[in-house]
UniProtKB/TrEMBL annotation:
Lineage, broadest ranks: Bacteria, Pseudomonadati, Pseudomonadota, Gammaproteobacteria, Candidatus Kentrum
EC number(s) reported in the record: 2.1.1.-, 3.4.23.43
GO biological process terms on file: methylation; signal peptide processing
UniProt key word Methyltransferase: yes
GO cellular component: plasma membrane
Signal peptide: none
Protein name stated in the entry: Prepilin leader peptidase/N-methyltransferase
Organism: Candidatus Kentrum eta
InterPro entries membership: Peptidase_A24A_bac, Prepilin_IV_endopep_pep, Prepilin_pept_A24_N, Prepilin_peptidase/N-MTase
Catalytic activity: Typically cleaves a -Gly-|-Phe- bond to release an N-terminal, basic peptide of 5-8 residues from type IV prepilin, and then N-methylates the new N-terminal amino group, the methyl donor being S-adenosyl-L-methionine
Keywords annotated in UniProt: Cell inner membrane, Cell membrane, Hydrolase, Membrane, Methyltransferase, Multifunctional enzyme, Protease, S-adenosyl-L-methionine, Transferase, Transmembrane, Transmembrane helix
GO MF annotation list: aspartic-type endopeptidase activity; methyltransferase activity
Alphabetical list of Gene3D superfamilies matching this protein: 1.20.120.1220
Amino acid sequence: MTIDLPTIPPIAFIAIGALLGLMVGSFLNVVIARLPVMMARDWRGQCAELCGRSLRAGHGPRGNASEEALCHLVRCRLIRDSGDKSATAASVDGSVIDGAVHGPDNRPGGIRPGDIREAPFNLMAPRSHCPHCGHTLSITENIPLISYLLLGGRCAACHLPIPARYPLVESAGAVMAGIVAWRLGVCVPAIWAMILTWILIALAFMDFEHQQLPDAITLPTLWLGLTLNLFTIYTSVAHAVIGAILGYGVLWIVYHLFRFLTGKEGMGYGDFKLFAMAGAWLGWQALPAILLMASVAAATVGIALIRLGGHDRNVPIPFGPYIAMATWVVLLWGAY
């Protein structure tokens, strides 16, 4: 379905898309860096509270097996994250979890559930800062890509290199949005395609860097695709629904077959949801091309890393970036 926008010269539409992509790319860097940390902090806070309630209720080591296993896992994670070398993860009495959660004498340094929940750490706060020295970036140091070039790729305070991911994401956001505007022209589907492009960039880098494809991104984007296709933006709603079902189901079956045959997990559930998301946007007809392209690319890179880079074949390679890139290619050039 093509919905025309007010008359905008194609070159201006491309320039606007690229400029927006540059600015959105700066925000994507915040999402990529902070969302996994926010999720981990929330998980630790919930687990600490749950285990603390279990211990106060007289469960924990003397409770049922699932509670004991959970508390032991929480103790291990909290001890590790708190840096308390004196505590041993093998201890199963209440003092370990209390020490790991509250710290000695409740002084700062221990991890408390309240600290995890109340610390001002989200997508808006604290302000952008150097990951090495904590230097808070000024307005001029926050200008997407340009500030990186003016600073010579180094922090203005500590002069250590700025991670390459920052200019890469900003450049990708601009270039790929410009390509979308050029390929699809001045129309509503092009605008939604830019939004999907930026989401795919965030997911690809997040999976590459953190091995995570958060439900907080994949599931709303899946529903957005289904909603758009109620108006046949990219495909019919029937094809979109079937695409979401098959996208999840096919990889779920592959995962369990691989696990049955090898005893190993070949991919994560986030990959299923990302593939379902692609099906919801582009319909089930797009899935074979996406899966083939992603699989060939992942296999090629994996073999090259093992043969040339000495990559340990037992260390998994994230599949999400390849699904994301293949989805973007099919979005623009596929027949769906």
